[in-house]
From TrEMBL:
Keywords: DNA replication, Nucleus. The keyword Iron-sulfur does not apply. This is DNA polymerase alpha subunit B. Signal peptide: none annotated. Transmembrane segments: none annotated. Pfam families: DNA_pol_E_B (PF04042). It comes from Ditylenchus dipsaci. One of its GO terms (biological process) is DNA replication initiation. The keyword Cell cycle does not apply. Residues 43-241 form the DNA polymerase alpha/delta/epsilon subunit B domain. GO terms for cellular component: alpha DNA polymerase:primase complex.
Amino acid sequence: MPITVRGNYDEKQTFVVKEIIKLPESIPPSLCRKSQTSRIRIVVAVGPFILKDGEVYPVKLVDHAVRWNADTLIIIGPLLQENDQPSGAMSVKRLFRLFIKGLSDAVSKQKLRIIVIPSHCDVNAVDVFPTPPYDVPDDCLAHNVIVLADPAIFTIDGVHFAVSASGIVDHLIEQEVLQFQEPENQNQDSISRAISYMFSSQSLYPLYPPDKNLKFSTKSKEKVSMTKRPHVLILPSVLKPSIKVVEGCVCLNPGQFTRLECAATFTSLEIDLNSASIALSNSIADHIQVNIIQ
């Protein structure tokens, strides 16, 4: 994790650190409601969504979100991992097109908005991080399907979200060798501590060198900048699904949509924007209900 230090060189030309300089604390942006909506509902699902049998699940995703009366469905890749490629005659590109087209057809006449975020380990994505948006033909996209990059920072009715499929929490936990003894860190679990590193570094990927399996592009490092702490941070991980509140931010690991080709996992968020106190708060933790549905 990059840090800034102050010190000097001794007579052996060894740099001796005298002080660790902390960056200014990142603060969440103010909640700026752009509509009269009193409550927003969001469904989050993390891939893979295409299994070895070639079956795809866009309609199931949309049906669940519509039944729950969700405003937004956030789909995070990978849609199809390399080791899950079907053995049938259908090509990877064809499966990808079917998935996106299925999403668009299912949602085209709905009020539901869909946000699709890639993963670098998807066979249909560019194998680099930060990862550009999926390359989707225009005729496959409905007007309410939005394709973003990874990481992605966006707002929904004034609530600020940050999402990354890089696996940064897993990478930070694996590399952690020292638990700092500041009082605020002593009782933190490893996930919360990893997220605190991200906030203190103001970065959605503060680890350098990066994980050996991640092709990190230093030319795009400004794309991982996180100068303002989001209200909601979504970080898929290989760890079991979890919900944490770290420095006032609601942090989610939604869990994978498919497990052992049978179970399905979603995360649903319901945010009450009608409370008078939410506009004065730096956190929406007291105004959000999060459920992991399995």
